[in-house]
Structures
1.
Amino acid sequence: MFAALRRTCLAAPSSLYLGPSSSLRSPATRSRIPSTRTYVTEIWKNTKSSELTTALIRTKDLYKTYKPITPSIRHLRRPLNPHLYTGRPLRSLTLAKRKNGGRNAYGRITVRHRGGGHKRRIRVLDYKREEGGVHDVVRIEYDPNRSAHIALLFNRDKKAVGAGRWSYIIATEGMRAGDEVQSFRRGIPEGFLDDYGVKTSSFAPAPKPNPSSSDPSSPSQEEPDAEAAAAAAAAFASTQNLALGLLRSKTLKPGNVLPLHLIPPGTVINTISLSPTGPGILCRSAGSFGQVVAMEEGARYVQVRLQSGEVRKILRDCCATIGKVSNPLWKNRSLGKAGRKRWLGIRPSVRGVAMNA
């Protein structure tokens, strides 16, 4: 039975042969047969890819890979950053970097695996952000001295001179040229919410009742005074909540600097300072961030969760930048060859057991 079925299947294509006398060779029939052959892949190109397919090919959209014409670029993988400025940095905001090859003043190696590498210049970054007002993001640049990208800011204030006119900061994720950032380290400026009919005095603490204003010998007068004080406190609290909501809607933007007591819980922050007048120290590398966990009314400290899981108590007057640090894909890059490590100034690491006794 199987042999007969096999002979039938093998003989079936011969019956489809279009000889010269076949009726399918007529001109009318040939006009109905398409001249070009279509494949199934043409249909696949017109269909939308599923979520699984998108997840599998996502790396091609996030990283740049190369055709492996040489062994050194077979595994080379770089994050795609088409928004980076390709020119040189601002010369006035850079310093010369003198290398020591991991050696101290006596010439002894104190840090192993250091030496060589490409010549660099140090970019002077503004970690304090004390200059208020609106700053324009001119461009996003690559910094060879850190994993994160940096942003060049221009101060709109015409009175600013020197270092107050131009500055470098750590760029937050999503920051692009043309954006506007502000620093509220010195407080909320006067008239910031005048368009909404809210005065800056609304953020002051509630006024305390004056006990000397009421006469204790007249108990009938205490009840109206208490009711009036309660109504005034409720109105002040309502105004303060409205002002705080409007303030957060205008100030909680990536790249802005705010004191921790003005940042609501759950907000992602970076470049966190540990003293009210000090520079930002925590969460400055690529893709790092902290999160405001809790803040009690009138408390001295604000609880911030770091990426290590540690919940740290920081003074409420310390400042932080809103958002996440840029270049989060930096940790997944692949250098591809040992020579690229040498370009970065990293020398080989030799195991101790492989050395001479």
2.
Amino acid sequence: MNVHYESKYKKIKRQIKKLVFENAALCDEVAEVQTELCAAREERRYLVKRLLRHEGFENVGKEENSAEAGALSTQKLSQPQKKRGPKKRQRATSMGGAVEQERDRINLTEKKFDVDMYGKPKFPINLSNILLHSMGEIIPTNSNFHNEHWIYPVGYMITRVYAHPKEPQRKCVFTCKILNNAGVPQFQIIPDNDLDSVFFGESANVCHQGLLETLQRSLADVTKLPKRVQGEKFFGLGNTTVQSLLQLQDDFKQCANFKRFLSAAEWNFPEDKDPTICYEALQSIIAMSAYHTMPEVKDEPPDELFELN
């Protein structure tokens, strides 16, 4: 009887030893896969940055500044020198052209785009995170198209890069428009090559919220998006260059309800780190969530288990 149980004991001991070796091999393999995943994530971020730079969604930097400086210098050289005249005439001309001087000042200090021979901007305008196609037209007589901090010009259109609502890890170009629907603004967010996933509503926040809810359903419970609805920011209306171009329109000062634009310090979160607006910030959250949901690699078994005879 003792011989029977002894043979069973030895058989079970051999199986346990075999399982211990298999578990150690699996631990090593999982560790190698995790290392390869980290390297793949870094390579993907690098490729995304190169792709965005190739498609024109990053600042050109020093080249833009040098080009603007050259354009300004040639413009100054081409302008004829004004002749000196009586003091009264100088006062009259300066008072009469105060508005034009103020516009020129805004244009020269904040200009990040090319202009034609009449001083009007050439579209599309690359503003790093958005591509501006049309500024639209301000409607000052209708209070639905402006409020205390925002102005919604009819015909305004931009494109920007963000995650596809059905495939969050795939990059997608969104077209954002503001239209006039019987005296009420209609905001639209249209994904490229996917007309079935158009988000529209009477406010920019409604469109942005619909996009975030669709993304959350696609991500399921693996990744939780922050509940930060910022429609005007997604539409690019918080961009300083867009706001400067709005100030240059003749009907800007006639908007009765409008007081001032929100400054960058008043935003809740920087745009380049906001996963509800920035594609790269969203991909970072998805990668971190996937990393935390991976099975934990346990420590290797103690050496005492390998000493079984």
